């Protein structure tokens, strides 16, 4: 018998802690209106049957035009608007990748050194995820 637990349905949103030379890429959302102007980790929803790492590579190609490679999962999981939860990976650009450009969903990108991470207005729900990513970067990832 199949039983479903009420509230158990959830969709993973993958976020990239895209690193280059010790800097982290922050992306400013251009839509929807309630998120526009706030900063996030680029990424998006994992599709049915898709591995999170594959979703990350796909989303980064679509949104930023880059060839990227997930490195490690950042420990933790952060609730977003129901039914979404945010999982984060450190990611690096593949050799020869074009630099990131705001092709979709974003209107500005910024490379941040660890001491400048909090200079942008991160989405509230991203703050704990960014803090955790920063801890990993600080460890020399
Ligand atoms: N990508 C991303 N989305 C985030 C973050 N924080 C956060 O609350 N969200 C929300 C915004 C959206 O409601 C949802 C992800 O949607 P999305 O628009 O980025 O994903 P997508 O490209 O797959 O979306 P879609 O237009 O194909 O439906 O998660 C974050 O750090 N990165």
Automatic annotation (TrEMBL):
Record-listed E.C. numbers: 3.6.1.55
Alphabetical UniProt keywords: DNA damage, DNA repair, DNA replication, Hydrolase, Magnesium, Metal-binding, Mutator protein
GO biological process, one term: DNA replication
Catalytic activity entry: 8-oxo-dGTP + H2O = 8-oxo-dGMP + diphosphate + H(+)
PROSITE patterns cross-referenced by the UniProt entry: NUDIX, NUDIX_BOX
UniProt keyword DNA damage, yes or no: yes
Hydrolase in keyword set: yes
Nudix hydrolase domain location: 9-136
Cofactor(s) it depends on: Mg(2+)
InterPro entries in the cross-refs: MutT-like, Nudix_hydrolase, NUDIX_hydrolase-like_dom_sf, NUDIX_hydrolase_CS, NUDIX_hydrolase_dom
A Gene Ontology molecular function term of the record: 8-oxo-7,8-dihydrodeoxyguanosine triphosphate pyrophosphatase activity
Domain of life: Bacteria
Protein family according to the UniProt entry: Belongs to the Nudix hydrolase family.
Protein name (database record): 8-oxo-dGTP diphosphatase
Source organism: Streptomyces argyrophylli
Lineage: Bacteria, Bacillati, Actinomycetota, Actinomycetes, Kitasatosporales
């Amino acid at each position: 018998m199949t039983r479903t637990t009420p509230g158990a349905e959830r969709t993973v949103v993958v976020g990239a802690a895209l690193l280059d030379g010790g800097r982290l890429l922050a992306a400013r959302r251009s839509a929807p209106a309630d998120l526009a102007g706030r900063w996030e980790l680029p990424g998006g929803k994992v599709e049915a049957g898709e591995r999170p790492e594959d979703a990350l590579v796909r989303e980064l190609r679509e949104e930023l035009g880059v060839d990227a490679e997930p490195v490690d999962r950042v420990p933790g999981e952060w609730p977003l608007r129901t039914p979404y939860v945010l999982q984060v990976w450190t990611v690096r650009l593949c050799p020869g990748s074009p630099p990131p450009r705001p092709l979709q969903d974003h209107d500005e990108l910024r490379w941040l050194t660890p001491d400048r991470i909090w200079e942008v207005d991160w989405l509230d729900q991203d703050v704990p995820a960014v803090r955790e990513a920063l801890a990993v970067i600080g460890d020399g990832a």
